[in-house]
């Protein structure tokens, strides 16, 4: 695959071209009224790109438009890539999903759980069981993020320098050692909380493979899939391709945020498997095609199709949905009817979320309002890229979903 472009007429794959234009018109209004700086949307069916559109600016102040090769900070859309990396090691017999993570990361031995008290003086008790690898993959480990602002342990993360980044002196190993010192929010497997779990999973990949996460990604995922634009920082020669980062003000308008944005121009000390990658629509489309293809793309097989099927089932305890099990909220999307697999949300009951979709659709998004999904039933993949923090500002993902599915007419 070379230049990113449409590959087939929409009508040849059951999509209505005029209805697809509704996507563009709708999100063009987000740009015209200042809610988004610019965006890119890609809709593919049966492995072929049927709709590709860009609108607005990758850098409003410089007058640079979003183009098909623009680079974006994908933040938590890194998580499915890290989850694939871990499952590649699982397929080699390196570990079992039930293994305690302390087997690889001894700092997580003898975890304690928050019971009561303030962030300064927490009362804790021993955890009833260790954090296991499947807990990391499903965000049921009891870990958290400092930016949640809903629990005393969240503040402990913030006070230690973990909110929208890491203390400058730490690498990934040091960050994991620090997180291991904090109490868990709950016993592993008992609830769901969006967290640094996938960063810890990335460190597990490093220890289990003997490679830095960046090197493992490059050798085993990015190069085999020809994801040439994806990495933990923007190359100097690609600097002008990287979109500027924006934050929503109180009115929901996009305001430039260079303090966060400039981080992507430099190689990080922490290779964040939870949110560190920069990518392009072309590259992430190739990643979704690999998933849709049951773990392989163009002769490069990363996973067995059975493993991909297993990853994209609901693994939450008792078959619960996120509405039932999740602590607090973490995005603008509805949790009802959504389970969670090994690295992806999994749609089990589209009627519960009140958004048209398919049973078995799996997905995730990033903090800067990016998102993707794979729908095996419809052989549909969708990627939406923009750069607005936080993702909970506007209902972009649910609106995109309804606009894509209404264009399916076969």
TrEMBL record:
<dbReference type="InterPro" id="IPR012338">
    <property type="entry name" value="Beta-lactam/transpept-like"/>
</dbReference>
<dbReference type="Pfam" id="PF00144">
    <property type="entry name" value="Beta-lactamase"/>
</dbReference>
<protein>
    <submittedName>
        <fullName>CubicO group peptidase (Beta-lactamase class C family)</fullName>
    </submittedName>
</protein>
<feature type="domain" description="Beta-lactamase-related">
    <location>
        <begin position="23"/>
        <end position="402"/>
    </location>
</feature>
<dbReference type="InterPro" id="IPR050789">
    <property type="entry name" value="Diverse_Enzym_Activities"/>
</dbReference>
<dbReference type="InterPro" id="IPR001466">
    <property type="entry name" value="Beta-lactam-related"/>
</dbReference>
